[in-house]
Amino acid sequence: MITGRFEPGVPDWVYLPVEVPGGVRELAVRYSYDRPAPPQGVPGNALDIGIFDEQGYGLGNRRGFRGWSGGFRDSFAISRSEATPGYLPGPVNRGTWHIILGPYTVAPQGMNWTVEVTLRFGPPGPAFDPDPAPHRADGRGLAWYRGDMHLHTVHSDGQRTPEELVAGARAAGLDFIVSTEHNTSSANLIWGRHAGPDLLVVDGEEVTTRNGHYVALGLRAGAWIDWRYRAADGAVDRFLGEIHRGGGLAVAAHPFCPFIGCSWKFGYAGFDGVEVWNGPWTADDEVAVKDWDALLVEHARAGRWIPAVANSDAHREPQVIGLPHNVVLAADLERRAVLRGVRSGRLWMAESAAVQLSLAATGGGRSAGIGERLRVGPGQQVAVRLEVGGAVGSVVRLYTDEGQVLETRLPDTGPGVVEWTTTPQVSAYVRAEVRRPEATPTTPDTMVALTNPVFLGQVR
Fold first, then answer.
1. What Cα–Cα distance (Å) separates residue 398 from each residue in 204, 234, 327, 422?
2. What pLDDT score was predicted for residue 303?
3. What domains sit in the chain, N to C, each tagged with a CATH number?
4. What's this model's pTM, rounded to 2 decimal places?
């Protein structure tokens, strides 16, 4: 048993060495800490936990990483055959292992903690047999595919099992999901048991740093992205490079989340997208959309821009899988094709599969859709056409680099069509929002659908 005490200002990560002799079948850990009532307005104690094996715990050491559960579990166990969700099965080899403690918040009174390690001896048991998800499902060729790219199960701080998650995804009418557990790759070892020809499961991770979270989409089997840095450390580019070299994408998650450690501090250079809509519509999302739109204005004429995405971040009931989700144009229901669609911004976002939408701009004998550029002269007239279904009585707003340029109400029955005319000289891009005139606890209305832009004119 190991005991200790943390005071306010303790380092982000503390490593406890554990000497593991030969012949250990299973390593089990249980921990606890006190929770004195903090003064009003000050966070109380919260302590995260994980473990690295004898191969080391240096920054980015994927070989030594053996699991993470944050503050969601008070115990875990690892053996050659199996491990607690969030942890990686495998040999319990002789050597110095390190339990990692992450004092997330420490009350002014300090934090007393206890870690108990149990080593169970015996034959190691059969090796764990990974079953990763296939990279392809039965698609429709070039088509719009619906997917939720930020989801959690019992492999991090969610309460749904993988079986329950895929059942919810199918019920929501999704074609694909991305597994994004906090700081661990354990779920990616078993998704082959739950994917099927009707549902593509893509490996990922929610990289949960102290200066904001980002989701890594499309990781290679067994890949793990380290999270043990802050923005001031200058380490994020190293891990963005790892993601990109593996063919994946990095998306800033819920950038205006008000919780400690969630607010985004890294900027957007090197990232492939920003999650502007996270779960049911809130004031945080409203700010995120405005901030993202400012980035569009900055980059619209340069040809470089960062697409928006929307995800449920669902953890447990009653959080709804697919509220919201992305509708991505991809060459097929295949991992790399879907990622290419996301990276190019060929996607729009919806609160449910009941919503249908198309947005296109036409001029000079050419046409361009969401995420594309209509390359016509600055004075060329451009006709913009938006079609919306499944959102009766909602309000449509069109936005350009000048701000909101049109607002109109959809009919109370059937689909609606909105048409508008502009020129590239006046409008660098056009994008659409569909909102229900129904207040939420923090906003005057509710987002139903949101598009990435159609860009107008030549690149400078």
1. 33, 38, 19, 12
2. 79
3. 2-121 (2.60.120.380), 130-353 (3.20.20.140), 355-460 (2.60.40.10)
4. 0.97
